[in-house]
Amino acid sequence: MGKLDNRVAIVTGGGRGIGRGISLVLAREGASIVLADIDRVNAPQTAQEIRDLGRQAIVVHTDVTNPDSAEAAVQEAVSHFGRVDILVNNAGVVGQHVGGGNITLDDWDACYQVNLKGIWIMSRAMVPHFKEKGGGKIVNIASIAGRKGGPGLAHYCASKAGAISVTQSLARDLGPGNINVNAVCPGLLWTDMWRQLEAMIGGDETPEVVDRRQVFDAFLSTNCPLRREQTPEDIGMAVAFLASEEAKNITGQALNVDGGIELN
Fold first, then answer.
1. How far is it, in rounded angstroms, from Cα 252 to Cα 241?
2. Exactly one of 81, 120, 130, 156 is catalytic; which is it?
3. What is the fold, at CATH topology level, of the domain defined by 8-188+231-257?
4. Which residues pair with 33 in a beta bridge?
5. What are the tens digits of pLDDT across the range 13-72?
């Protein structure tokens, strides 16, 4: 018996990185998974991994910045499975540049469109179905970067702070409809996004630089009380809890999963 037996979950950006970890954990807990992803390569591979676990999974090509695409994803999920119980707004980007003098307007717009507006668009598409069926769970993936600003990542930090704020607002708005809305704030995970940051900061995209983990390991060793990195599975377990009936009276909260980096 799993926490999420007979539930159906949509996971945006569920094909790789944190999204893949979330999708696999939810599947292990009994859920059928809809991978709503713009990635046409990794999402099908993750879907097959889920099927190998004995769970159902489909891939729906989805652009979370496009309201029509979001509506279509929800409709396809409901049509295929008959219902959706959980929405995980995981899709996220960091832009193409870091550093205060290097961040462009395109970087700002990308973070805003995907990391913040995408949450609103997908939630708005999902809420009518939740209200019709008498409730649901929304879990937004924010970041400890949304807890306080950090050097060189103003665009990303601002979008993730907004993700926490919109979580609180949606929780107040949707609570009377038996819809819980919470956020998870990941800490340090060695994912493709961090590899991208290593390349940006190192000024070199060759594998030797990208895989060196200098920035990642230095931050981890000096800022994380538990002195260990977090994993996509760690984030998935937090999401599974918040999406389960064990958390039925938790809403409007942002849970740090970061080894103690941020203590709020």
1. 14
2. 156
3. Rossmann fold (3.40.50)
4. 9, 57
5. 999 999 999 999 999 999 999 999 999 999 999 999 999 999 999 999 999 999 999 999
